[in-house]
Amino acid sequence: MTVEVQRILVIGAGAMGRQIGAVFALAGYDTTVGDVSQDIVDAARDEIRTRIARLAEKGQVDDPQAALSRLTWTSDWDDAAREADLVVEAATERLELKRQIFARVSELARPDAILGTNSSTIPSSLLADSIRNPERLCNMHFFNPALVMACVEIVPNPQTSQETIDTVVSVSQRTGKEVVLLKREIPGFIANRLMQAVLDEAMRLHASDVATIEDIDAAARLALGHPMGPFQLMDLVGNDVISFIHHAEFELTGDESAKPSPELEALVAEGRLGRKAGRGWYDYSS
């Protein structure tokens, strides 16, 4: 059994939230994307207009104006929270911030509204006691960039109802995404754990002076068919983000092996965060 979803609120208009909002609008949902910063909201709106126009030029969107008309951008999302059938949080990966957001949502949203967090590192069970209806909450993890990546991981917590799971699976499928449904929570879920194993091994190989980062990346691309090598991927995602994921897993599990490598920590300390900083494992200054 599913809940009928017509109106969706996405909280967080950053790189992920803005694209998740566009994915919902393209699938026919009336979608509001909210953030506390009007500057971020305005930048998100302009970027999504450009992205949807490009998709239309490629023949991937039939009616871009209809999709854009279903999108509302705001720095005051209280009314949208009251009206939403589904609320998806896509804020910064900080536990206390997410708890504050969900506590506010819980005050405003209808008791039957479905709540999802896009977090890839924080399981929804850590947010459940901040809301009044934890059975309506789960992880709904889109991948970056959400307009392109075909997968959504759905992760229930121990209190999540079957109706909630069925609803978020149905909504995800309507957007054209393939759903990966976990039976239970586990730190990092599936995709990140698989990829983290590759990234960690790549860093071990480099630290052991087995090969250069260029050759390790080439092996991943040419022999394994990966679209980019592990060091290229870390630079794209952000080395600070990769480090944060390690620290978050350590905090959740207490497993010393989850801590980031000294090499990665040194890069972050030097400000070599990847493409966004002009330098990471590679130099992008030229």
Automatic annotation (TrEMBL):
Keywords of this entry: NAD, Oxidoreductase
InterPro entries named in the record: 3-OHacyl-CoA_DH, 3-OHacyl-CoA_DH_NAD-bd, 3HC_DH_C, 6-PGluconate_DH-like_C_sf, 6PGD_dom2, NAD(P)-bd_dom_sf
Pathway: Lipid metabolism; butanoate metabolism
GO molecular function, one term: 3-hydroxybutyryl-CoA dehydrogenase activity
Signal peptide from the UniProt entry: none
Coiled coil regions, renumbered to chain: none
Site (Important for catalytic activity): H141
Domain 3-hydroxyacyl-CoA dehydrogenase NAD binding: 8-183
GO terms for biological process, alphabetical: fatty acid beta-oxidation
Ranges of residues in domain 3-hydroxyacyl-CoA dehydrogenase C-terminal: 188-284
Family as reported in the entry's similarity comment: Belongs to the 3-hydroxyacyl-CoA dehydrogenase family.
Pfam families given in the database record: 3HCDH, 3HCDH_N
Binding site for NAD(+): G12, A13, G14, A15, M16, G17, D35, E93, K98, S120, N144, K276
SUPFAM superfamilies hit by this protein: 6-phosphogluconate dehydrogenase C-terminal domain-like (SSF48179), NAD(P)-binding Rossmann-fold domains (SSF51735)
Name this polypeptide is given: 3-hydroxyacyl-CoA dehydrogenase family protein
Keyword Oxidoreductase belongs to the record: yes
Gene3D superfamilies the UniProt entry points to: N-(1-d-carboxylethyl)-l-norvaline Dehydrogenase, domain 2, NAD(P)-binding Rossmann-like Domain
